[in-house]
């Protein structure tokens, strides 16, 4: 079975981002190995967009990818920003499962954490815990969790586009998608677009 994964995580936007952990071929290969025998098609937010000045369309592209994905895999190996939280919340609205790669003793997980005047054991950041379908240690485990999602049957049908995302997804679908070669290629691979 072909499964689409939206690669959520930091994007290297310039020289200041060179030291950040981002999705690379290595992470994609680990997910692919873990998901075997399923084939994985990756939807990547860092593909070039035809009109970078169209910020609504650019946001719409990310949300469209989250919507059509079989699952969102979040790279939470280190501190992440606003965009990842929005992607996780949108995934919840669509009914897209969220798998979070948060290694033990990282920003979002700890065996023991002093938190709000208490000691918490097996801490997972509250936003991650609330929005994640699974929290795993590494990308191979994320692939295995992805395979596990479909092991018992098909994924549930997607929910309708929430009102707060309708304008952005509409902008992308109506004015950007036709010129988005990487996304059109991925959709053809997933047999979601005829021709």
From TrEMBL:
Highest taxon, organism lineage: Bacteria
Official protein name in the record: Nucleoside 2-deoxyribosyltransferase
Organism name: Sphaerisporangium rufum
């Amino acid at each position: 079975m072909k499964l689409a994964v939206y690669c959520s995580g930091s994007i290297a936007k310039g020289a200041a981002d060179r030291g950040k952990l981002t999705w690379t071929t290595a992470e994609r290969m680990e997910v692919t190995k873990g998901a075997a025998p399923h084939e994985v098609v990756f939807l990547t937010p860092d593909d070039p967009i035809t009109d970078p000045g169209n910020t609504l369309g650019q946001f719409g592209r990310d949300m469209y990818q989250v919507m059509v994905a079989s699952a969102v895999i979040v790279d939470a190996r280190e501190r992440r920003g606003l965009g990842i939280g929005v992607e996780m919340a949108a995934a919840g609205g669509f009914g897209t499962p969220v798998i979070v790669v948060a290694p033990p003793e990282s920003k979002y997980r700890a065996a023991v954490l002093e938190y709000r005047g208490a000691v918490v054991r097996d801490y997972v950041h509250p936003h991650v815990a609330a929005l994640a379908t699974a929290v795993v240690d590494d990308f191979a485990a994320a692939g295995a969790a992805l395979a596990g999602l479909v092991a018992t049957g098909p994924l549930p049908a997607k929910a309708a586009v929430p009102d707060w995302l309708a304008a952005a997804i509409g902008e992308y679908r109506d004015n950007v998608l036709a010129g988005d070669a990487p996304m059109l290629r991925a959709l053809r691979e997933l047999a979601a677009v005829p021709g």
